[in-house]
Amino acid sequence: MTHAHITSWAVAIILFVIAATILNKAGKEKSQKIVKMVLRLFYLFILVTGFLLLFSGVTIDGEYIGKAILGVLTIGFMEMILARSSKGKSNGLFWILFIVVLGLTIGLGMKLPLGIWHF
Ligand code: HEM
User: Fold this and answer.
1) Model confidence pLDDT, tens digit, residues 103-114
2) What whole-number distance in Å separates Cα of residue 104 and Cα of residue 24?
3) Pocket test for ligand 1, best of 60, 67, 98 (most atoms within 8 A of CB)
4) How far is the CA of 89 from the centre of ligand 1 (A)?
């Protein structure tokens, strides 16, 4: 399940960056729409695999709850950046917040004991 979780968010981040940067700048609305639809499917994969890990028998403590909240926040910032960029609004602050939250999510995920990258 960890591999499915990692694959899901890795693909989602790549799709997100493509939709929010290249496709947005090029004004390719139709392609962006399709990439966004696929991206939303991957949000679902992230959530399903994340919750399956969460309910796989670990003791759910504050760190696990924090991991889940950070994961959901990461997805939230991706959606926010996409929504704002398609309206042509500036996103500098949201990119910074996204990168910080993403870093914390990955860091905490790797610290927790189930993963293949557990320190
Ligand atoms: C974009 C969002 C997300 C990212 C980047 C992310 C990242 C990660 C990473 C790096 C790991 C560790 C994998 C490893 O060490 O091999 C992990 C594990 C995990 N993630 Fe996520 N995650 C995200 C969303 C979520 C969500 C929404 C949940 C909701 C419940 C969740 C729950 C978990 C759980 C329970 C684990 C296992 C922790 C453990 O090792 O015991 N994640 N995640």
Assistant:
1) 999 999 999 987
2) 26
3) 67
4) 30
Burial 83-118 (b: 16+ CB within 10 A, else e): eebbeeeebeebeebbeebbeebbebbeebeeeeee
- Kindly give, in sequence order, each residue whose CB lies less than 8 Å from that of residue 31, ignoring residues fewer than 6 positions away: 23
The rounded distance, in Å, linking the Cα atoms of 98 and 81 is 9
39 close to 16: Cβ distance less than 8 angstroms: yes
pLDDT tens string for the chain (119 positions)?
Answer: 889 999 999 999 999 999 999 999 898 889 999 999 999 999 999 999 999 999 999 999 999 999 999 999 999 999 999 999 988 888 999 999 999 999 999 999 999 987 666 55
Report whether 34 contacts 44 (CB < 8 A).
no
- Give the number of residues written for the chain: 119
Distance, in Å, from the CA atom of 98 to the CA atom of 48, rounded to the nearest integer, reads: 21
**Which tokens hold the place of 69?**
């909240």
